[in-house]
Amino acid sequence: MEIISTNYGSYFDVYQRSYPPEFHSCAGYTETHVQLADEVSQGVLSEICFQGVRLHYGQFQTLKSDTIRTTEDFPSVEMVFQLQGRTSEKSSVLNGFSAQQHNLSYRPYCDSLSQFEAGYHHYVGIQCTETFFSRLADDDSPAMGRLLNGLVRKEASALSEHNLTITHALQAQLIRLTQRRESQPLKRLYLEATVLDVLRQQLEQADHNLAKQKTTFPPRDRDKILAVKAILDSDPLATYSLLSLSRLVGLNDYKLKKGFRDLLGTTVFGYLNDLRMEYARQLLLNTDQTIGEIATKLGYSETHHFSAAFKRKFGYLPSQPGSRANQ
């Protein structure tokens, strides 16, 4: 089992890793961390392997966009969670991720091109072997059934046609999963239990969306709801109302309000708030703007209201150490 990553100089020229069958032997786990520190990138890439699973994650900042080609000579199922940053991808099933999006895919092999936009990136990937994933088969899950059909036919497939939104519960669990600790009792058991629960949450969210799409969404309405999402993604600081968004896409406000929640798992303005909080975190990490200036930019008249909203989203105050990249 071999993974080869090649790029154009931002992090490394060629990074080649070889693994034993199932990523690791029956007992224990291995853990590695690679420091990025050069003129165009700063941060850490990490990897933890145990039987059947490769957990890889990174927090890094890039000063310019960079394209990385990844090849893998083995089949796998991989969950990807883009907590911060934006990537585009040319692969057999996925097209990339914006901040706060996730998906899962099966690949009989991998030969993909991923472009990382300049800025701060935080991602988590959980890669499972066919053996590990197959033992979790559940006929009651339509999303799982679709993936298993792809696995049997050796055809690339994705959990969801459109990326899903990372929930607050998922985000909190992913952050705990990837926190570095010098020692942790029963870590191997904790890792596998958490990976299984993260997969459960992904499948439940995908099944929920599939059920809603089948029962409530004509294709034209679904396209209009996704058009609203694209509008919010393109300019999260603009002023919106439900009525103005409805008129822009030609869908009445009731259908937009209900359909957005059913399709994306959150409200229109809940999604917009998540985008704005992510924008604020990027400003904290990548600029020297004060918390008050950022709060004003997001439309808050009182800084403490912004700080409270930021903490509800990320679990810590913008003034706490570590909120800024240079702290």
UniProtKB/TrEMBL annotation:
HTH araC/xylS-type domain segment(s): 226-324
Keywords from the named record: DNA-binding, Transcription, Transcription regulation
Keyword Transcription regulation annotated: yes
Record's keyword annotation contains Transcription: yes
Residues spanning the signal sequence: none
Gene3D superfamilies hit by this protein: Homeodomain-like (1.10.10.60)
GO MF annotation, one: sequence-specific DNA binding
Protein's name in the database: HTH araC/xylS-type domain-containing protein
Native organism: Spirosoma telluris
